[in-house]
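Hi P.,

Sorry for the delay on this. The queue was packed all week, but I finally got your sequence through. Input first:
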Amino acid sequence: MRIVFMGTPDFAVPSLEALLKSEHQVVGVVTQPDRPKGRGQEVVFSPVKVVCQREGIPVLQPLKMKDPAFLDALRRWTPDVIAVTAYGRILPPAILTLPPRGCINVHGSLLPKYRGAGPIQWAVIRGEQQTGITTMFMAEGMDTGDMLLQETVEIRADDTAGTLAPRLAEVGGRLLVETLRRLEAGTLTPQPQDDAQATMAPLLKKEDGVVDWTLSAMEIANRVRGLSPWPGAYTHVNGERWVLWRVAVGLETSGAVPGTVTKVSKDRVEVATGDGTIQLIEIQPSNSRRMTMAQYLAGHRLAEGLKLQAIPLSQS
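Then the structure:
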């Protein structure tokens, strides 16, 4: 079949590479426009575009999905199927109805759970032990289309969103090719989603990273994992912003006010939460590198009774 692929970040690359190794013909790729990044605001290509340049695949990067020139170019590719993995934009009806075999999406959850832009992060934040990949026909709703294939992936106890995503992405590429094979063979039976079982996974914002110390220790630990590597869970210590990269549920109970440092030793800091304590293992203070708590305490003093703040003291 003639395939147009739509995708942008690292998560989409295994899907594109799996298509390139399959019997199908990738006639073109649509990815997000090049954007400035970092302090130097240097323009960088999306990971998907980098693959396209390496493989000599034609690329479209529309600013607007309804741009007539873009839609005309897409039609000229005459795709049988449009395959989508983490493209990052909602597709209008003009695209959804363009290919005769439909638009197929690779989604990073076991639908109908975790519909939306952040399924991997929210599965970890919510303490799930399993997630997976769903391929589905795309519809106008947010991840509401009929499901095609699913595969379950275990979430390890030490997984972050950053470590889980590559495993899911590899499954996504394999499942996409299998979906196309069965679609062409006529052996797929689309399954409607049960909307009553649906949960949402909205796009995360930078402010979602602030640590709410009134949550339980387990909830905070899961948020730290789910928010890594972006936007990162953070708190303020003596007015300085700390990103919490690794934490563990403490072994002690505490009647202290949530956010209070309850224990400091040579390599250990415990903080009271709404239920139990959290051990800080790896942190990153403002304008500094990531370091273990032991490395930080080797050159800094932290007093028991210190209160960690959601916002700097100057703003509270």
